[in-house]
Amino acid sequence: MILIRLVGGLGNQLHIFAAGYAIASTKKAELYIDISLIEKTKGEKRKFELSDFINSFHSSVPIYIIDFDDLSNENFISFIEKRKKLELHSW
Q1: What tens digit of pLDDT does each residue of 74-90 get?
Q2: 80 Cβ contact list (under 8 Å, min separation 6)
Q3: pLDDT one-digit tens code per residue, 24-65
Q4: Are 58 and 27 in contact (CB under 8 A)?
Q5: Long-range contacts made by residues 13-20, C-beta under 8 angstroms, separation at least 24?
Q6: Coil, strand or helix at 59
């Protein structure tokens, strides 16, 4: 499982997605995209701009879009515990 956290505008989101996708496809792992920080950045308000691209993207890697703000602490812990091979990468 590869978990990435998107921030910024379209260019930054696409760059982070591409890096996460490359790692996930190399390791043949699931790719989880956390969008919880996009609308919370200070300054210019951003939105999740990759939804149409990802929905039309034909991928050999399973891609899941998650807003971790919608998960309670118990659900987040349960989510992580179900996936023992968690790899976190920070950019």
Answers
A1: 676 677 667 655 555 55
A2: 86
A3: 999 999 898 988 888 776 667 788 888 888 888 888 888 888
A4: no
A5: 13/38, 13/48, 13/49, 13/50, 14/50, 14/53, 16/91, 17/50, 17/54, 19/89, 19/91, 20/89
A6: coil
